[in-house]
Every structure is written in structure tokens, then in C-alpha cells.
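User: Here's a protein and a ligand (4'-phosphopantetheine). What would the complex look like?
Assistant: Let me lay out the input and then the predicted complex.
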Amino acid sequence: MRRAIYPGSFDPVTNGHLDIIQRGCKLFDEIIIAILINPEKTPFFSVQERKEILAEVLRDIEQGGCTVIVDSFEGLLVQYAAERKADAIVRGIRAISDYEYELQRAMMNRRLEPALETVFMMPAEAYSYVSSRLVKEVFQLGGNIGGLVPPIVEQRMKVKVLG
Ligand code: PNS
């Protein structure tokens, strides 16, 4: 039984995130999508909204025999991973710029918890430039985000802004 944590902000979840979850499902029996509760950031969607959205979009994706759980956490990721008895952390890497940032974090996490492995996965090329931050920027400026996020996310973003 191999369990991984896929941590992140997921504000909002993108098709790139879903691609990584599906790839992670090939390697792990269980993936816990762990939304960081970050009081310092003003998010677009609340943690509760992000949980609901993730649960909804996960219903539509092929997970094979893998169990995908949605949760949230505060504080140190390695501590949360230990509590959930996880074997690994999964992170998506799109470009070299991601790698440098992720390597630093992975090394720090290894120092804090040597038994926990970090697994970097590459999304499909089509999502290599997709980030939650850019999706929000394009959406807020009236651009088309179709194909970058699941349709439910786009709907929820419209409801949030237009009411
Ligand atoms: O989607 P994001 O915003 O890139 O995710 C960043 C995340 C949640 C992976 C990162 O902020 C994190 O691990 N936060 C937990 C705090 C922590 O453990 N920090 C010290 C280890 S580097």
C-alpha cells in the first residue's frame, strides 16, 4: 500500500493538476490532495470551496484502482505527511524554473524528514504553461480559460465574480 500526498494551493485546480493526479495514480494506491491553509494569502476560493470543487472534478476523472482523497493541512508539510503515514510527496514540474524552487523545498523536506521521498512528475506538454495564478489573471481580465481548467471551475469562477 503506497500513499502519496499531493500538496498545493489548488486555487483553483487546473487541468495540469488533474493530469498530475492521474499520472500519480499509476504509481500510488492512494493520493491525498492536501490543500494548504495559508492565512497570509487572500485566496480566490476559500479552502472549503476548493475542497468541494476538487471533490466534484475528481468524480469525472479516471483514477484506475487508486483512491483519491481531498483534505487540507496547516503548518509543516512533513508533519502532516507523517500523521497521514504517507510514503511520498508528489509535485508537478513544468519547467526548469519550477525545478529550482521545488528542489529547494524537497531538500528542506528531506532534511526535516529523511524517510519521506519527493516525487516530481511532468504534466502533459499542453499544460506546461498552465498555472492557477495565470488562470486567475486571464479570467479576471476577461480572457478565455476554456481547456485550462475543468468546466466546473470556470462556472464557479463566473458565479464568484458575477454572482
Ligand atoms: O501550489 P503551491 O502554492 O505551489 O504549493 C506550495 C506548498 C503547499 C507545497 C508549500 O507551500 C508547502 O509545502 N507548504 C507547507 C509549509 C512547509 O512545510 N514549509 C517548509 C518546507 S519547505
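Summary: The chain has a mean pLDDT of 96.
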